[in-house]
Amino acid sequence: MMVMVNYNEESYNFGKAGSKLYEMNPPKGFQFAIDRGGTFTDVYARCPNGKVRVMKLLSVDPQNYEDAPREAIRRILQEETGNALDKDGKVNSSLIESIRMGTTVATNALLERKGAKMALVINKGFKDLLYIGNQARPHIFHLNIKRPEVLYQDVIEVDCRVIPALEDRCQIDKSKQNWKESVGTTASYVNCNK
């Protein structure tokens, strides 16, 4: 068996290495890997039959679709199965095993300083933490240090304390203060007071 890639009606053959990879781990459904950039969205799709599809769409094309990654998934499913939509008119997610997605849009906005205005919310007493940093610089003895501008417009200091909820490492007496357990943005548990 050989693994073939359909790219703009051309076929690319990955030979024995590609076929061995497929034989070791055949997908149960469609597997999508998506890179959404500022101009183009690139999609790599591994089909259940071993076929590999590659698609490139404009990231923003409101006359033709609302969302480039969703449109690419819909098109590939339609071309490969003949039926990409479920009874509600949405992309049939039962055909999809996995979706991996990355984007350079936020990184570019930060580098170009074109993003939305932001504020830094930080524990009281640490408002200068990101400005001071760790003093790492390429030429430590230069007197004229050029620092990059900070990304935030304002600093909001919050009078609270956050401690990771790690029972084996962070021991706190929850009866002495009003500690609340919360879930952080990284799905890690933290204890907060106030």
Summarize the structure.
This protein has 194 residues and is of the alpha/beta class. It contains four helices and eleven strands; from the N terminus they run E-E-H-E-E-E-H-E-H-E-H-E-E-E-E.
From the spread of the alpha carbons, the general shape counts as extended
The CATH topology of the largest domain? Nucleotidyltransferase, domain 5
- In CATH, what is the class of the largest domain? Alpha Beta
Low-confidence stretches: 1-18
Radius of gyration: 25 Å
Structural class: alpha/beta
The assembly state of the depicted protein chains is single chain
What labels describe this entry?
194 residues; Nucleotidyltransferase, domain 5; extended; 5-oxoprolinase (ATP-hydrolyzing) activity; 5-oxoprolinase; Oxoprolinase-like
